Amino acid sequence: MNVNRCFLKDQIDSLFDLLPVQLENSKKTIEKNVHKEDFMYFRHVYIVASGDSYMAALAGQRAFEKYANKYAVHYHAVKAMEISRFNEFTDKDLNEQTLVIIISKSGIGSRVIEVLERVNALNMTGMVITDSIDSKAVELAKYSLYTDTPKFTNDRPALRSYFAAMVTLYLLAARFSEMYGNSMNMETMSKNIHDYMMLYKDKIAIYDEQMMKLAEMYKYANSITFVGDSDEQSSCNFAVSKVIEVTGIHSKSDDSEEYGHINYFNHYVSTNPVFFIANSLNSNMSRVLETIKQSIAVGRPAYLMINENSEIEDIEGLSKIMLPSVEDDVLQSLGSYIPATFLANHISDLLDEPLFRGNIYPEGFNTIRNSKIVVYGENGNEIIS
Fold first, then answer.
1. Boundary (domain end) residue, out of 153, 181, 198
2. What's the pTM value of the predicted model, to 2 decimals?
3. Among 76, 97, 211, 223, which is disulfide-ready with 343 (CB 3.0 to 4.6 Å)?
4. What is the main EC category here (predicted)?
């Protein structure tokens, strides 16, 4: 009998009850806090985070670029460390037109606080998307969006909060679209998200069974690779984080071009699978298929997670895992990590692996929260506090 049990599967199963509640809660906080007269003048929008939240930022950036692409506004998904320690902000006029949206469930991480303190010092505008209404981040940010995600008994490692962050970002992109006079609005976006995610409900049992079989095959893998381009980078990175957090197995993500340059040359080809996540609506499919063939040619087990309304050639040696049909490619990132998360869950249970390898932080070394906060000025050479 297992001593340890992974709860990622439980969180996936809970998404369909969470979905309408999260849509309503996220919509409500945006309607309350985001108004045209306050946000129309921003020309640079940074979506900033660390860890899993950065993957949500990557998905969110694509939503903003697609739905709120007006007035030459630039959207950037950036890791918190880059904003807090490396990015230079020497144009004071541009700083006043810069919105920094930081995603943090807890609102207390050191880099989160560091980013917001630098934002304030340089006369930029900060917004936090958080589930912690009384956090330090809320105190520092000019605007706060409270996700108000319902509590769940076993919510570690993060999955529900990752989904909540994406839902909030997608609805925020729709709000910006409304403000700019574009066609997308929050009501339509909410319906689109709901209808697309409900397509997964009938597939959950299928993924559960498929991934259990693969978990039996690869529970002793040296490494598990996920390959996806900018359209699925968020889901690939999220899959990597879940595999590492709950199994301890090395995992890596790559895009379809870079994989052929470096990661392709890994040892242990026959025991280390490669999972490709793709969407046939995008322009990268020819390269994805080339990379799949290249991987199979050297004996790597290859699997393709792709929308079922795709029409791609059959490739000998390739196994397909079908994601729901989708007409709007941006929506796919809301759920394309689900099969890979089942895989991580089942390998963890088969190995009886403790979550986060048993919380191995030495005493006083949880540097996510205890890292020294240093606030830099316009460039990385000027410490102001």
1. 198
2. 0.96
3. 211
4. transferase
d(CA 118, CA 101): 13
pLDDT, tens digit (0-9, with 9 covering 90-100), for 40-95? 999 999 999 999 999 999 999 999 999 999 888 999 999 999 999 999 998 888 89
Sign of the Cα pseudo-torsion (325, 330, 335, 336, in order): positive
From the list 288, 285, 301, 303, the residue with the least C-alpha distance to 340 is: 303
Whether 168 and 250 map to the same domain: the answer is: no
Q: Amino acid identity, residue 143?
A: Y
Q: What is the mean pLDDT of residues 174-180?
A: 97
Mean pLDDT of 232-257: 97
Averaged pLDDT for residues 218-243: 97
Residue 303 lies in a domain: yes
Tokens of 215: 């978990």
For the chain, what is the domain count?
2
Claim to verify: residue 187 and residue 206 sit in the same structural domain? no
Which of these three, 175, 198, 221, is where a domain ends? 198
Q: Domain residues for 283? A: 201-358
Look at the alpha carbons of 77, 83, 87, 88 in this order and tell me if their dihedral is positive or negative. Answer: positive
CATH number for 169: 3.40.50.10490
For residue 242, list its beta bridge partners: none
The DSSP bridge pattern shows strands 143-146 and 125-130 to be parallel
| β-sheet bridge partners, residue 76 | 46
Statement to judge: residues 173 and 45 lie in one domain:
yes
Question: Is the sign of the CA dihedral 87, 88, 93, 94 positive or negative?
Answer: negative
In this structure, the number of other CB atoms found within 10 A of the CB of residue 27 comes to 20
Angle, alpha carbons 222-226-232 (nearest 5°): 165
Residues in the chain: 385
